[in-house]
Specification:
By secondary structure, the chain is an alpha/beta fold. Helices cover 31% and strands 20% of the residues.
């Protein structure tokens, strides 16, 4: 099992000097971050889709093996083709696509999304409504996963730890759960104004190493 551990975003001036040293400028935040973590959630794509050149610049700032998890809003399904074309500019730095769907269960919408997004991509569905309970086997059959599912049959896992603070004991419990998985896992700690997320992420990554 391979685990990629990181945070939800990186461009936070309030993480200085607790995480970013005082002399590191914001344009250099990503490069500094990527020297310490293997992945990051790219949330800006859920609000505004950057140009291909921006994705290329981000990819150029991180080392081999680094992965960006990119957010896609389901209500923009008609833009799926453009979205995929743009994010592919990340090249081999492209990780999972987190597809956010707020509405109640609608399997027609799910089929539309699965048909609109390249099946070669790692698709993780962030299904917010409780009516989606039990959809995991259907997603797994399509090569996709549900965010926060520990389904042992999933082709990969996408976990978002959203309830800080985390004690050492809680991080150890998460390490045991993640370490028991057989498929690759992408794990992201929630951003807070204080640099707690990178501290938790570093602690969890060390436990998993």
């Amino acid at each position: 099992m391979q685990a990629f551990v990181g945070t939800s975003g990186w461009s936070y001036p309030s993480w200085k000097p607790g995480f970013y040293p005082a002399d590191v400028r914001p344009p250099d935040f990503l490069r500094f971050y990527a020297e310490r973590f293997q992945t990051v959630e790219l949330n800006t794509t859920g609000y505004r889709l950057p140009a291909e050149e921006q994705f290329e610049r981000w990819a150029a700032q991180v080392p081999d093996g680094f992965r960006f998890a990119v957010k896609f809003q389901a209500y923009r399904a008609e833009q799926a083709g453009t979205f995929v074309e743009r994010v592919r500019a990340l090249g081999d730095r492209l990780g999972p696509i987190r597809v956010v769907l707020q509405s109640a269960r609608d399997e027609g919408m799910l089929e539309l999304l699965l048909g609109s997004l390249d099946p070669d991509l790692q698709l993780a569905f962030d299904l917010r409504h409780p009516s989606w309970e039990g959809i995991e086997p259907q997603l797994s059959a399509a090569g996709a996963v549900r965010v926060d599912s520990l389904d042992p049959d999933a082709p990969f896992h996408y976990l978002r730890l959203r309830e800080p603070p985390y004690t050492d004991e809680q991080l150890a419990e998460w390490s045991e759960r993640i370490g028991a998985l057989t498929a690759p896992a992408f794990v992201y700690l929630r951003h807070e104004d204080e640099p707690t997320a990178p501290a938790y992420a570093a602690g969890l990554a060390e436990l998993l190493s």
